[in-house]
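Tokens as discussed.
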């Protein structure tokens, strides 16, 4: 009789983690544990979730914790556009157009997914929501496991979150906090801006991309497809003349749509610019997912009508509704996940852990490079419980920038080290906001998928990316190469 232990369902896992947070908060409150935040000097005590105030808070916020869960609305908005594009036949047309006579189609699919994942941080977190289901379809079209497509895209988005050929929103946000921390510490000899790490992460994009491609081919694909029935490559028929015409027309309309939005966001008097004239917190960047999803929906609608598949508005509505069913499991997982994240944030356990580990690191006395490497490992570890890069750096910058300045390390180098550690372990933490959605996407193809399944396939990526990134950072630092400008 087999007595094989299995990981619980994702919803059960988040429930158990929530109970663990509640118990730990109670124990910490008994001992009166607290921290002091820099630079405000504010003292924060760990909040007990088992006392009267904690219980009242949990009951009063049970619904709002769920409805305010960020990935919830984002997933629904994204799935409208993706569902319509798939239902209209546009995604199928893209694959049939691309697969034409390419002998290396499978390799190109993998490279394309990795590249899109690495570059997706230009538009914030949209890659987690839009790219993963598309990657599953792309891998399936090449006779590869769709679960492997989801994992490859997920790793590229999560672990490669800092790597990019272009500037992203996160570059500007982190540099603002870095500048504030440097100013507070009276550090004036550094030029800090959005491009202060650009050179390093430009090179990192190539290195991390090759590494993800290598691990996917040598480890992920064989391990997933071992013991499973071989997935036969779909024999796609060439596009007919009518379908090809509809395909080109939809692409033209889509290009016009996105060009118009880019113009109204970048022109001096564009109405999608922020109140200060910038793009950092503008309506464009804050609503990029809605803009993308609506654009995909328009492309799908144009293709549906021009190809003859759609005849009236009912067909369009059916297309919008076609993929919503897959979110039913996500709603259940997201409910328990939202309670976990809310309880963890309310208890202040995340800040308590981060600040105390930071104090331990700053008490060490070793060479600057070794200290930077320890800082990368520290950030990677803290990222397992506190996933928000901007949230961590908002208070960690005021702790570590002055500390490293005393041993001759400039703020831009410290920020670079932070970003390496922050990105490397994104894929394996259960506290990542988009983890419930990733598990939901995977369960569309394998109902037995759990967090343990995902961890089994992603830990190798995380470990190798962290090691390679540290080696690249040490080489860059020792050679005195500028990290950016």
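Sequence:
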């Amino acid at each position: 009789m087999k007595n094989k232990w299995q990981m619980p369902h994702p919803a059960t896992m988040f429930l158990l983690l929530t109970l663990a947070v509640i118990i730990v908060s109670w124990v910490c409150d008994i001992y009166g544990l607290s921290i002091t935040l820099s630079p405000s000097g504010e003292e924060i005590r760990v909040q007990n979730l088992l006392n009267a105030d904690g219980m009242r808070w949990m009951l009063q916020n049970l619904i709002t914790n769920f409805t305010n869960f960020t990935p919830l609305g984002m997933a629904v908005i994204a799935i409208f556009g993706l569902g319509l594009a798939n239902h209209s036949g546009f995604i199928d047309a893209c694959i049939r157009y691309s697969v034409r006579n390419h002998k290396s189609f499978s390799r190109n699919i993998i490279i394309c997914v990795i590249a899109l994942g690495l570059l997706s941080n230009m538009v914030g977190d949209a890659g987690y929501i839009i790219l993963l289901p598309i990657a599953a379809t792309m891998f399936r079209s090449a006779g590869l496991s769709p679960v492997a497509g989801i994992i490859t895209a997920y790793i590229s988005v999560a672990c490669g979150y800092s790597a990019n050929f272009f500037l992203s929103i996160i570059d500007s946000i982190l540099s603002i906090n870095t500048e504030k921390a440097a100013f507070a510490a009276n550090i004036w000899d550094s030029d800090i801006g959005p491009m202060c790490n650009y050179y390093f992460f430009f090179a990192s994009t190539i290195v991390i991309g090759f590494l993800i491609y290598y691990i996917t081919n040598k480890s992920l694909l064989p391990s997933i497809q071992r013991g499973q029935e071989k997935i036969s490559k779909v024999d796609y028929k060439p596009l007919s003349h009518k379908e090809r015409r509809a395909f080109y027309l939809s692409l033209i309309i889509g290009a016009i749509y996105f060009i118009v939005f880019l113009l109204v966001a970048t022109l001096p008097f564009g109405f999608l610019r922020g109140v200060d004239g910038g793009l950092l917190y503008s309506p464009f960047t804050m609503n990029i997912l809605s803009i993308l999803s609506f654009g995909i929906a328009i492309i799908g609608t144009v293709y549906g009508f021009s190809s003859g598949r759609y005849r009236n508005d009912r067909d369009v509505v059916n297309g919008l509704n076609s993929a919503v069913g897959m979110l039913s499991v996500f709603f259940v997982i997201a409910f328990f996940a939202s309670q976990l994240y809310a309880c963890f944030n309310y208890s202040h356990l995340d800040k308590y852990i981060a600040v105390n580990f930071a104090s331990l690191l700053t008490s060490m006395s070793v060479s600057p490079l070794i200290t930077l490497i320890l800082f990368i490992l520290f950030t990677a570890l803290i990222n397992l419980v506190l996933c928000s890069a901007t949230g961590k750096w908002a208070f960690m910058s005021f702790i570590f920038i002055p500390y490293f300045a005393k041993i001759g390390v400039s703020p831009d180098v410290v920020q670079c080290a932070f970003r390496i550690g922050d990105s490397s372990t994104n894929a394996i933490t259960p506290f990542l906001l988009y983890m419930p959605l990733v598990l939901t996407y995977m369960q569309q193809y394998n109902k037995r998928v759990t967090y343990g399944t995902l961890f089994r396939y992603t830990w190798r990526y995380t470990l190798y990316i962290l090691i390679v990134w540290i080696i690249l950072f040490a080489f860059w630092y020792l050679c005195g190469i500028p990290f950016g400008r």
